[in-house]
């Protein structure tokens, strides 16, 4: 098979790129090693920046998002037992939308006007223009590696990449609970026991997180212990945490990871194939969407008249935002998590930073601008 752009990976990055290219009249095919059911059921983060929602709307795949998504105009920072609201819309004119990543994937697949080939087995790159699948070789003018951190794209060019990484000394224990959210907005909490996050997936499903050690075992966290820890870490006046059956739980290590450049020859890396951010800033999906938007614009210019300037600038353009997002995610993570070796001096620095953020309009605006998504080039 031959096409113009071969896209590896049917996650948000690959599917959004497919929609953008299809709209521009550029032929493409998405190759995915897993089944459609597997892809549509992978539970991931669900906070969409304002710009991400605008793009999905423009692509015509956001009808259900607008019906079912939960628009949030603020978030709360909780420390020393007191919650402080950061008014996102008031400070920036923009908001975020809570809508599960797997729901975004379902919408993108349902409206796809381009071929998506599922269950392709162990994919292998023959070159920066050809991908070997279970059904044969697919060739293109370009290959877009949107296949995640554990995909085949980055290892193919690993020897030519510079790697930047940082592992954090804690992890997140995340749970989905069959109970209505206990607050209308997200609550980011720092307590003497560590970090906690109250989030949601729908009016009937709550998403909650606890900071734990990176080597913790799920067997050591029965439901009763999870709820007890959440009750303590999220406690503040006027708040009641509603408990319910836990539907699923898992532990996720926290790390920062960036490779540069995000291109080699005709192979372009996008999303988690090129960078990982700590989940504290809720940026993974949004950063991937920004990558493929830049890539699609470069490809459109190339096919419209042979202009390669956008493709040549792809890596530098994306990495400027990647590093801005890495800094924001690191800052949020450092400010809201209790490091295992944190001494009283470090703890007071954290409190000082939190007090400054909630007490200064300029500092609160900085948080809000980064959280809802920066406009233009960072």
From TrEMBL:
InterPro entries: FAD-bd, FAD/NAD-bd_sf, RIFMO-like. SUPFAM superfamilies: FAD-linked reductases, C-terminal domain, FAD/NAD(P)-binding domain. The keyword Plastid does not apply. Keywords: FAD, Flavoprotein. It comes from the Bacteria. Residues 2-328 form the FAD-binding domain. Gene3D superfamilies: D-Amino Acid Oxidase, subunit A, domain 2, FAD/NAD(P)-binding domain. The keyword Metal-binding does not apply. GO terms for molecular function: FAD binding; oxidoreductase activity, acting on paired donors, with incorporation or reduction of molecular oxygen, NAD(P)H as one donor, and incorporation of one atom of oxygen. NCBIfam families: PRK08243.1. This is 4-hydroxybenzoate 3-monooxygenase.
